């Protein structure tokens, strides 16, 4: 197998893939915020939630649903900020994964990644990292 990457490039490719995988797993897990509500442990992320309150028509009161699930629709996400965070974080994870998989392919295919492509990919990766890490923390 021929490679178009230097030793540093191969290390970058594998670290990029590990970081992209960790970002994607973090995006899909509902454990961004942890707390309690109605004496139950509650957690939620940008588009998933665990143990959430729901109105029960039969008893006419709020009950805790003790299961994990996603919001029924994009508009069901609690606020505009969380909807923006969902889109931006999803795009960031997608960019990170695209660059990481391209870099891994560069380990196997000669002349796939040039110095210029490596620099552009690093810039895209930087933007993806900023999107997936920086937007949702202050909301």
Automatic annotation (TrEMBL):
Q: Which GO terms describe its cellular component?
A: membrane
Query: Which coarse location class applies to the principal site listed for this UniProt protein?
Result: membrane
Q: Which InterPro entries match?
A: LHFPL
Cellular localization per UniProt: Membrane
Q: How far does the signal peptide extend, from start to end residue?
A: 1-21
Q: Which UniProt keywords apply?
A: Membrane, Signal, Transmembrane, Transmembrane helix
* Lineage: superkingdom: Eukaryota
This protein's membrane topology, according to the annotation, is: Multi-pass membrane protein
Q: Is Membrane among the key words of this record?
A: yes
**Membrane-spanning residues:** 87-109
Full protein name: LHPL6 protein
Organism of this sequence: Drymodes brunneopygia
Taxonomic lineage of the native organism? Eukaryota, Metazoa, Chordata, Craniata, Vertebrata
Gene name on record?
Answer: Lhfpl6
């Amino acid at each position: 197998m021929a490679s178009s990457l230097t030793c540093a490039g191969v290390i970058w490719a594998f670290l990029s893939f590990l970081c992209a995988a960790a970002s994607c797993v973090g995006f899909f897990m509902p454990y961004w915020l942890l707390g309690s509500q109605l004496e139950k442990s509650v957690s939620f992320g940008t588009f998933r939630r665990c143990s959430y309150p729901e109105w029960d028509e039969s008893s006419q009161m709020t009950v805790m649903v003790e299961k994990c699930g996603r919001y029924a629709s994009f508009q069901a996400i609690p606020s505009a900020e969380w909807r923006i965070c969902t889109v931006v974080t999803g795009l960031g994870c997608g960019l990170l994964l695209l660059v990481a998989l391209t870099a891994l392919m560069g380990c196997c295919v000669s002349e796939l990644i040039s110095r210029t492509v490596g620099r552009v990919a690093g810039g895209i990766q930087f933007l993806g990292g900023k999107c997936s890490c920086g937007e949702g923390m202050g909301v």
